Structure formats: C-alpha cells, structure tokens
Amino acid sequence: MLLSMIVFAKPIKFALLFTFGNVLAVGSTAFLLGPAQQLGMMLDNARVFATAIYIGCVVIALICALWVSHTPLIIQSHFSNMLIILQTLIFLSIEQ
C-alpha cells in the first residue's frame, strides 16, 4: 500500500527508481548469461518487438519524468512498461 502511494506522492522519484531497477534487472541477466548472449536473445526474431517496446517505454518514462514532469504521463508510461514486462513473462512461460 505504501509503495503504491509513492507513485502519486513523488512520481519523478518513482520513475527514476523504477527505471533504474529495470536497467539493473536486464544488466543482471546480462551478467549471468554474458552480454553477447543476452543481446542475441533480446534481438531474437520472436522477441525483437517486445524488446523495442520495452526500451521505448523505459525511454518515454524517463523523458516524461525528467523533462515533461507531468504525473499522469509518468504513471501511464510505467503502466505500459509493466504491461510489456507481464506480456513477456507470459510469452516466455508459454514458450517453454
């Protein structure tokens, strides 16, 4: 409950921390698999569109947080980011 309130109370701080967490998550899998294999898996034919949308959502979230500073846009960009993460997880669980 408290974590969900930080989105509305301090959306810029949430946007920066959420984006930093996403970068750390991708970086940790790159550390475990190796950067070349991670990049190859992200640019696979089945995942290239999800990767492009994911990176686009992260960039849009940072732009909305740092330059636009408009709370509804920040929340909407992070909501779309969470949806693409959920879609990727569902796709990976069905694929295997």
TrEMBL record:
<dbReference type="GO" id="GO:0016192">
    <property type="term" value="P:vesicle-mediated transport"/>
</dbReference>
<dbReference type="InterPro" id="IPR007305">
    <property type="entry name" value="Vesicle_transpt_Got1/SFT2"/>
</dbReference>
<dbReference type="GO" id="GO:0015031">
    <property type="term" value="P:protein transport"/>
</dbReference>
<keyword id="KW-0813">Transport</keyword>
<dbReference type="GO" id="GO:0005737">
    <property type="term" value="C:cytoplasm"/>
</dbReference>
<keyword id="KW-0653">Protein transport</keyword>
<comment type="function">
    <text>May be involved in fusion of retrograde transport vesicles derived from an endocytic compartment with the Golgi complex.</text>
</comment>
<dbReference type="GO" id="GO:0016020">
    <property type="term" value="C:membrane"/>
</dbReference>
<dbReference type="GO" id="GO:0012505">
    <property type="term" value="C:endomembrane system"/>
</dbReference>
<keyword id="KW-0472">Membrane</keyword>
<keyword id="KW-1133">Transmembrane helix</keyword>
<protein>
    <recommendedName>
        <fullName>Vesicle transport protein</fullName>
    </recommendedName>
</protein>
<dbReference type="InterPro" id="IPR011691">
    <property type="entry name" value="Vesicle_transpt_SFT2"/>
</dbReference>
<dbReference type="Pfam" id="PF04178">
    <property type="entry name" value="Got1"/>
</dbReference>
<keyword id="KW-0812">Transmembrane</keyword>
<feature type="transmembrane region" description="Helical">
    <location>
        <begin position="12"/>
        <end position="34"/>
    </location>
</feature>
<comment type="similarity">
    <text>Belongs to the SFT2 family.</text>
</comment>
<feature type="transmembrane region" description="Helical">
    <location>
        <begin position="46"/>
        <end position="68"/>
    </location>
</feature>
<feature type="transmembrane region" description="Helical">
    <location>
        <begin position="74"/>
        <end position="94"/>
    </location>
</feature>
